[in-house]
């Protein structure tokens, strides 16, 4: 049982990390596109 709980916790942490990565990627894309539009 404790091992399963640990697996769930790691899965949740992986989900959070993926979400942060996606947010950063979207922010970077928006930033680059906006700077390109300014040129």
Tell me what the structure shows.
With 39 residues, this protein is mainly alpha-helical. Helix content is 95%, strand content 0%. It has one helix at 2-38. It is rod-shaped and about 55 Å long. The N and C termini lie far apart (58 Å).
Sum up the structure in keywords.
rod-shaped, mainly alpha, 39 residues
Kindly state the number of beta strands: 0
Structural class from helices and strands?
mainly alpha
Major sheet characteristics: none
Count of distinct structural domains: 1
- Gyration radius, in Å: 17 Å
Mean pLDDT: 90
How many helices? The count is: 1
What is the oligomer described by this structure?
single chain
Short recap of the structure:
The protein is mostly helical and 39 residues long. It is built from one helix and no strands.
